[in-house]
Amino acid sequence: MSSEIQFRDASDPTDPDASLLLRYENTTSAPIVSATWLDNGEAIAGSYTISATSGSAVDITAEDPKNELVQSGKSVVADGATANKDVIPGVAIVFSASLANGWIAKLSIGALMDTGGTTSKRLNVGTIESGEVSTQRRIAARNVGDEDSTETEVYALPGFYVSGVSVADYIKTLKNHTDPARHGILIPGDYVLTFADYQSGATDTVDVYVNKDGGGANKAIEDAELNETLYQYGVTGYIDGGDYLPGLGIALLNNGDPTSKTFTIHARDGDDWIEFAPDSSGAPGTWQSGPLTLTELGETTGTITAGGHAFFWIRVNVPDSADPGDMRLVNLRARGLTV
After folding, report:
1. pTM beyond 0.90, yes or no
2. Nearest-CA neighbor of 208 among 184, 176, 232?
């Protein structure tokens, strides 16, 4: 399995229910059978309420008024087996075959959720005024893998989300570049993805084009294989000379010809507003811009053992020059070497 760092609330880092990635609770009856993280770039951190209006439709509301993923009268398949991938984008939700009007569930991404569905802000910070600093949060980085992690660091990286019809059927993964030398270079803007020259064979392929902010479409990937291969700068097929998806990596799924599809990556700034501090006996040490080295108590610098954890602090320091009303997105990532 190797090492794998998961962010959890510091109050109980050994409890999987303290995970700050994805949690859900059924609060009225049991509408949700399961919810699975897709890691395809669609998700936006926040607290969501899913309310059934019938056996085949739900309303989705969000705690944050700036969250762009709210929907009303969303049609769903409720058969206890089908994964609905467009209710809360970035999450595959299976609904009960008995779904009925009035059934309610709560779902959180980045927030701490208790067993009653009540959430507390953690990695979802909500609205912060220009020139203000958010509430500081103590976070645990838990190694849920079966091998130790060394040289472990936490980074704040450019945030984004992708939109379009059937994104989850065609994009397996969309994430920041795997190389720390390139993972922070994404430029804010809208990157429109289109596809051409679909070829069906032993391995289906397609060319991927990118049009940033209406500037014209450019070929970003030549003959991308629809087999979950991660394409990014430095990988054969990705056109390094243009680098039209700077700082990103994308892997595609094979669900037939995608040339009629259009998806948009909405890249936002704000990652340079994130500040970290090491944990000093339960209090923040000196605040700094990332990356921050994470170390389990009693271990060598940068080491988190399998099943172990390290603590750190995080806050958002918004400059006076920040424009009001903007939606800012940040990807929080931990990187380490498996030993």
Report:
1. yes
2. 232
Q: CA-based angle 153:179:136, to the nearest 5?
A: 30
Q: If you search the block for the tokens 């760092």, which residue do you land on?
A: 5
How does pLDDT run across 267-286, given as a tens digit for each residue? Answer: 998 899 999 999 999 999 99
> Given this model, what pLDDT does residue 127 score?
81
Q: In angstroms, how far is CA 247 from the centroid of its own chain?
A: 15
Residues 105 and 220 in one domain: no
- Whether residue 253 is contained in a domain is answered as no
CA 10, CA 19: separation in Å to the nearest integer? 10
* Residue 243 pLDDT: 98
Examine residue 145 and state whether it is found in any structural domain, yes or no. Answer: yes
Give the integer Cα–Cα distance in Å for 157 and 133.
19
99 lies in a domain? yes
Does 113 share its domain with 135? Answer: no
Residue 125 exposure: Cα atoms within 13 Å on the Cβ side: 23
List the Cα angle 161/331/234 in 5-degree steps.
Answer: 85
pLDDT of residue 1: 62
pLDDT per position as a tens digit, 185-228: 999 999 999 999 999 999 999 999 999 999 999 999 999 999 99
Count: domains in the chain: 3
Structural domain harbouring 206: 175-247
Q: Give the 3-state secondary structure of residue 115.
A: coil
Name, in order, each residue with C-beta under 8 angstroms of 222's C-beta and a sequence gap of 6 or more.
207, 237, 239
Distances in Å between the alpha carbon of 252 and those of 117, 237, 325? 34, 13, 33
Residues lower than pLDDT 50 in the chain: none
